[in-house]
Design goal:
7 helices; 5-stranded antiparallel beta sheet; 3 domains; D-amino Acid Aminotransferase, Chain A, domain 1; 4-stranded parallel beta sheet; single chain; Dna Ligase, domain 1; alpha+beta; Rossmann fold
Length: about 280
């Protein structure tokens, strides 16, 4: 058996999910270390890309598993990119991390392919707000902050006037927002499929608590294991591959037209929950 030296980039070494990765690697006889992403220093020299960790030159690793939180995306992806330049295999490439963290960019990329997505609009001029709401099907609509995570910054606007007021208020504070069709039949629930390579290894349905329309675990949502049919599995795998992710959690709405992929796929990381629409 080949022994692989693995680095897990994580700021939460005691998190359950990080510990399980370490246990799984050790059970298979591999060497594994958890490294705090923010303790790296990047050295850029001609023909000699290097990384330092806590002041010491990084020893040779065969593979890296990035678990980059949203708050450190810029520096985290720079560290991942440096490993790539050093010829180290990276489970989630830096480009894929950057794309999947950008809700607008993700939707733009997914829209070019044959898979379901909720109608979405992005505008800056006040005069474009009402036409954009109409283009996604009219009120109610879901309004999302581009930088929001774990359901924070996701608002259901029941009427056109309320939607317009919310968007104007957010834009006045220099916030970028998406306007998205509200899939009413999926209110309060969504599907998360865990994709590894070319297959879905597990899936769960998240259900919101009470009158809450966001199903995020951070918002008190509950979860239950589900068996996905072939259409949902194909959609999840296709979405992950489009974004360049070999390991991902893909969130989908259960609409009357079939699965609707949300704005991004989540990476293997320490946080629970997501910023997906209905839940």
């Amino acid at each position: 058996m080949v022994i692989v030296k693995i680095a897990i980039l994580s700021r939460a070494p005691r998190a359950y999910s990080t510990r399980r990765l370490v246990e799984a690697a050790k059970d298979r006889g591999h060497k594994v270390q958890v490294l705090d992403t923010m303790r790296f220093a990047i050295s850029i020299q001609n023909h000699e890309p290097d990384l330092y960790y806590k002041g010491r030159l990084v020893s040779n690793y065969d593979a890296v598993i990035p678990r980059i939180g949203a708050s450190i995306t810029f520096f985290g992806t720079a560290v991942v990119r440096q490993f790539e330049q050093m010829g180290v295999y990276v489970l989630s490439p830096s480009q894929a991390i950057s794309v999947s963290r950008d809700k607008l960019r993700t939707m733009q990329i997914l829209s070019r392919h044959r898979l379901g997505i909720p109608d979405t609009a992005f505008v800056r001029d006040r005069s474009d707000i009402l036409p954009a709401i109409e283009r996604v099907g009219g009120a109610p609509v879901v309004i999302k902050l581009l930088e929001g995570t774990q359901g924070i910054g996701v608002i259901l606007a029941e009427t056109q006037k309320v939607a317009e007021a919310i968007i104007e208020a957010l834009q006045s504070t220099k916030q970028n927002v998406l306007i998205q069709k509200f899939v009413s039949e999926s209110k309060g629930k969504d599907i998360r499929a865990f994709v590894v390579g070319d297959r879905v290894v597990a899936a769960m349905r998240r259900v919101a608590q009470g009158q809450e329309f966001r199903s995020n675990v951070h918002r008190g949502g509950s979860t239950e294991a589900v068996q996905l049919d072939e259409e949902y599995q194909r959609t999840a795998i296709h979405a992950a591959h489009i974004l360049g992710l070999s390991v991902a959690g893909v969130d989908m709405l259960e609409s009357q037209e079939g699965p609707q992929v949300m704005e991004r796929s989540t990476l293997l990381r320490a946080s629970k929950g997501s910023s997906r629409q209905p839940a």
